[in-house]
Amino acid sequence: MMPKRLTLISILLLLCTAANAGSTVEKVRIWSEKNKTRVVLDLSRSVDHNIFTLRSPHRLVIDLKDSRLATSLTKMPKGAGTVRSIRSAVRSNGQLRVVLDLTESVRSRSFRAGPNSEYGDRLVIDLARAGNLQPVKRASESYRPGRDIVVAIDAGHGGYDPGAIGRRSKEKDIVLSISKELARRIDAEPGMTAVLIRNRDVFVDHRDRIAMARNKKADLFISVHADAFDDPRANGASVFALNLKRASDEAARQLELRDKTAVSVGGVSLHDKDEVLASVLFDLSQNAALSASLDVGTRVSREMGKVAKMHSKEIKQKSLGVLTAADMPSILVETGFISNRSEENKLRDKGHQRRLANAVLAGVRSYFYTNPPSDTQIAMNLRREPSQRVRHVISRGDTISEIAERYNVSPAALRRANKLSTNKIRVGQTLNIPVFAGG
Ligand SMILES: [Zn+2]
Predict the structure, then answer these.
(1) Centroid of ligand 1 to alpha carbon of 18 (angstroms)
(2) d(Cα 438, Cα 144) in Å, to the nearest integer?
(3) N or C: which end of the chain has fewer CB within 10 A?
(4) Quick one: fold of 19-135?
(5) In sequence order, what are the beta bridge partners of 195?
(6) Residue 368: its pLDDT value, please?
(7) Does the predicted model carry a pTM greater than 0.70?
(8) Which of 43-57, 161-175, 386-400 has the highest mean pLDDT?
């Protein structure tokens, strides 16, 4: 039976490869206003493309690599503005060709837009009568943007190590769920990337956790845990920055004595924790930038205090001066006590998990916007002042995120520059675009 099965698998693999290679044009939209015409191709995914114009008659040709039209797209929209009609054809090399028949010679530009709340990947083509189109220099064309800030998120425990155990849940599951939520939020932040140390129920050795974060050149290490205590009344979240001297002394003592009674490692109570965690703390603290850890920890704690009851508001700050060299600020977030019935219910609640993740993100963002590593995009954006103001008149089909993408500014910067509190814009409205100089 083996060969037959293998064949089936190969066919499936082939099918998957074919499906993954190109894109599907799901919809074609067109608007025209004054002298401008915009054509949007809604794509199943971003795809390589090539655009060129041809004369007599005037045409604009869009070739999409390994692409096809969706079966639901039976008819192209009618032409508008400078576009007389839209046609398509599949070429022998597998490219999909979309042709815009034009009424006259035009200037064109195209840009790819990523998914937003309303649309998926898009290819946008703007046409204007020759001479009408103001070229917009996208900043990314003229300078190499800085790198993303990398945040390693370490969901505690996992696999055969459940961590603390509540009535209905295990620490390892709750912290994984919160960690994933946090990672999603960080990934959605411009200039930030999350690395999940574990993204499923698996045990990861503590040394590997640190090593993974280092390999990914993490700028911050956040370990996410939940507490348990003999007294079910104990409750509240806490944030810990690790304290080199006390951590090393006491973790060493802890490991040596195999002492399971309450001790404190850099402010982290170890009464419920095992040797693995103790040595994680030990290892982290050996390498952490303590003052940075304290700073980010304080900000995260402050934000968490807005959405959760805090067990301890203060971050331990002793022996601040002992740390000289450091490579990775690290904090440990205790999200609450799963040994407390009502807190366990809260921690299981997706809404509460989202609020916690948001609070941690707010603290992290506040820290990095104050202390951005100098080679990061966030540092560069903070250093740059808008060099010129461009005015953009809203056309039908424009969205804040699309405009932001087009001019290579963040949606937040765009809203700020126009004192907008929401993403609502109206056709004909003029936006000030803060355009940053290259360099
Ligand atoms: Zn834990």
Answers:
(1) 44
(2) 9
(3) N
(4) Immunoglobulin-like (2.60.40)
(5) 152
(6) 92
(7) no
(8) 161-175
Which residues, 6+ apart, have CB-to-CB distance to 34 below 8 Å? none
CB of 181 within 8 A of CB of 359?
no
Cα–Cα nearest to 45, from 123, 127, 108: 123
- Cβ contact 198:176 at 8 Å: yes
Distance from the alpha carbon of residue 225 to the mean position of ligand 1, in angstroms: 4
Residues 240 and 268 sit within 8 Å (Cβ to Cβ): yes
**Nearest CA among 429, 371, 411 for reference residue 149:** 371
Ion ligand 1, residues whose Cβ is below 5 A away:
156, 163, 225
Q: For 384-436, CATH number?
A: 3.10.350.10
Tell me the residue length of the chain.
439
302 closest CA partner among 238, 256, 391, 229: 238
Tokens found for residue 369: 């916007």
**Which ranges of 258-374 would DSSP assign to H, the alpha helix?**
275-287, 290-304, 341-348, 350-370
Nearest to 247 by CA among 284, 297, 208: 284
Q: Residue 306 C-alpha to ligand 1 middle, in angstroms?
A: 23
Give residue-wise pLDDT tens across range 221-239.
Answer: 898 999 888 888 888 888 8
pLDDT at 3: 39
Q: Residue 272 Cα, ligand 1 centroid: separation in angstroms? A: 8
**Residue labelled with tokens 């219910």:** 345
